[in-house]
Structure to design on (243 residues):
């Protein structure tokens, strides 16, 4: 049966018959939405405090969008603050990479930032990229 | 309340330690009370007193980028947090420094730790 199908397919190919084309509905072009918040490298003061299983990260910057999570890129030694609008503020990490083990089991951090000049505390997830 | 004990503190300058430590302690205090979960919480340092933040003296191992670690001791008392920051910067930098809401003003060296 398989051989017959192959022969028939070959014959259709020889005769120039193409399989019917499935029409795909055209998706209208949507321009990429601009990122909201603080994006890119950020030069500001940073302090990390660790007591037992609690970690506090203070970033001395007035964010215009709400932080969603924090990621520590260990190879680059950069701390990223990802915000709800998609922007990621990157700050030089103050934690030496050799202290990775101390923070490996940390799932969330208490993050202090500024919003409209006022200090605001958040609890956000910490992602460690090794 | 935030208990003392040993803390690890990392910062990119000694002035950052002095200026941002009150924020870190206040946030830690709020976290200990379970007041930070889900929604962001606005807080104020102006009305905070050190006894609201610390119930035992703070002993911290401080690591500043590019410098060797040093220890920091801070007593719990009734002074406002900015005074605690003044004490912290004195202990950290060995200088008489004044921390205000506007920032840090150093008033010259007065010995080393």
């Amino acid at each position: 049966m398989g051989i017959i199908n192959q022969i028939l397919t070959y014959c259709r190919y020889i005769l120039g018959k193409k399989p019917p084309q499935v029409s795909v509905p055209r998706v209208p072009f949507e321009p990429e939405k601009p990122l909201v918040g603080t994006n890119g490298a950020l030069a500001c003061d940073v302090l990390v405090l660790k007591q037992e299983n609690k970690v506090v990260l203070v970033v001395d910057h007035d964010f215009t969008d709400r932080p969603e999570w924090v990621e520590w890129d260990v190879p680059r030694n950069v701390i990223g603050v990802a915000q709800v609008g998609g922007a990621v503020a990157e700050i030089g990490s103050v934690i030496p990479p050799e202290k990775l083990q101390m923070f490996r089991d940390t799932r969330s951090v208490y993050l202090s930032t500024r919003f409209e000049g006022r200090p605001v505390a958040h609890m956000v997830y910490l992602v460690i990229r090794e | 309340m935030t208990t003392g004990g040993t803390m690890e503190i990392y910062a990119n300058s000694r002035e950052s330690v002095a200026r941002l430590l009150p924020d870190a302690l206040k946030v830690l205090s709020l976290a200990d009370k379970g007041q930070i979960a889900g929604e962001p919480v606005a807080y104020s340092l102006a009305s905070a007193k050190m006894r609201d933040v610390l119930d035992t003296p703070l002993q911290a191992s401080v690591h500043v980028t590019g410098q060797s670690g040093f220890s920091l001791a801070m007593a719990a008392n009734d002074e406002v947090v900015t005074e605690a920051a003044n004490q912290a910067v004195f202990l950290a930098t060995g200088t008489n420094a004044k921390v205000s809401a506007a920032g840090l003003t150093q008033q010259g060296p007065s010995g080393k730790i």
